[in-house]
Write a structure and sequence with these properties.
Elements lengths: L2 H4 L5 E2 L7 H14 L6 H14 L8 E2 L2 E3 L7 E11 L9 E9 L5 H13 L3 H9 L3 H8 L4
Parallel strand pairs: 1-4, 2-5, 3-5
Antiparallel strand pairs: 4-5
Helix pairs in contact: 2-3
């Protein structure tokens, strides 16, 4: 699965806020709602928060991927938020999170959901990609780096 098949520029927030991880999740969810990707905001938020409370989705190298399967979407939705200063997200490495992908999938979707999670985790282990992402200042630069994801 290709990251750019899911991610559109209208689903990117280059100036993600500095709130706690639940506020960040809401901020990104609101981007999806504003773009007509979510039919029921409250249900999607409930599912995301339940998943996040079960186990933090803050990984390493500045990556967080809050995700949930929910009846609030008909197809997979991916939203990206960038905070170059870094925010607290209870990450595995204890370091600030800069790159947040919010992933929502229909309840009956397993394979593609796991494929996107694996794609993100794999690419964020690549120091060169992470270094490039730390330097982006525009959506065009961001999408240029995302094209390198394999």
């Amino acid at each position: 699965m290709n990251l750019l098949e899911l991610l559109q520029k209208s689903l990117v927030k280059m100036d993600l806020g500095n709130g706690n991880k639940f506020q960040i999740i809401e901020e990104l969810l609101d981007v999806a709602v504003a773009n007509g990707q979510v039919s029921n905001r409250e249900l999607a938020l409930k599912d995301l928060i339940e998943r996040e409370q079960y186990l933090s989705t803050g990984f390493e190298n500045g990556l967080a991927v809050p995700h949930a399967k929910t009846e609030a979407v008909r197809e997979m939705v991916l939203v990206f938020g960038l905070n170059q200063a870094g925010i607290e997200f209870d990450s595995l490495d204890g370091k600030p999170t800069r790159f947040v992908f919010l992933l929502l999938s229909p309840v009956n979707t397993s394979g593609p959901h796991i494929q996107i999670l694996a794609l993100l985790a794999r690419n964020f282990q690549n120091v060169q990609i992470v270094d490039k992402l730390k330097q982006v200042t525009s959506e065009d630069e961001l999408f240029s780096v995302f094209q390198e994801f394999k």
